[in-house]
Hints:
single chain; 11 helices
Amino acid sequence: MTAKIIDGKAVAQRVRQELKPRVERLRALGVQPGLAVILVGSNPASKVYVGQKTKACAEVGVHSEVHEFPGNVDQDSLIRRIQALNASPKIHGMIVQLPLPDHLDMRRILETIAVEKDVDGFHLYNVGGLVIGQDHTVFPPCTPYGVQWLLESEGIRIEGQNVVVVGASNIVGKPMALMLLKKEATVSICHIKTRDLAQYTILADILVVAAGKPRLITAPMVKRGAVVIDVGINRLPDGTLAGDVDFEEVKEKASHITPVPGGVGPMTVTMLIWNTVEAAERILKRNGAPETALA
Ligand code: GUN
């Protein structure tokens, strides 16, 4: 039996449709949700991602602006721009596209973003909120949030399941593990130094792979009937995109699998817009809008 292919594009479209009336309600109250993206240098992948984010904003009626800086920008100029955007009433969400050039202090830059506008969820306050499981006060990082949404929209049980996350980055692996732990899964985190990766992956009811290595996960490493979520996006020498999972082989063994492209990617972008709309609603509520106006 071949796996059900999880259509991330279709789920993302449904979420965007859900967002439209919320954006309309905000606009009726005189607020257009706004996202600011800070882009430093000319990393081609970053440019593509930023293009996808602004396009998705336009689709649901969210204002977006891209603040571009040359790769040799000094730290203080960036900090000053972030502070100005923190104070701007037009902006409800702000992200700094990563990676940043090495001469910049990424942590200091991310910690300058106002917590209530940190829609990537990379500020230490948001990371801390995720650790203690307070998910209604923080913004969950977009990629793991999108993965959780996909699992839930497919009706996949998380509670009590064996989850293996391959990859321990701050953007995906670590927050993913925390979010699924909060949903009461038994979570293992594997990474580049894990000995005999297959010994862990074979136990997974849900396998989330975010390692950045094409074909890292092959069929013998996957339990029959497992749910396989591929977060990898790798550009192969022939120019095509591939995930971290050998899709053709593993789809014959899994119960559900995400394709690359068209799986997790569209969800990442969509959850960013979700967080931005959420941020605008929270800011408006804090400024005294009646609950009923936003319900
Ligand atoms: N670079 C790779 N993924 C991401 C992301 O989700 N947000 C930002 N800001 N940069 C990234």
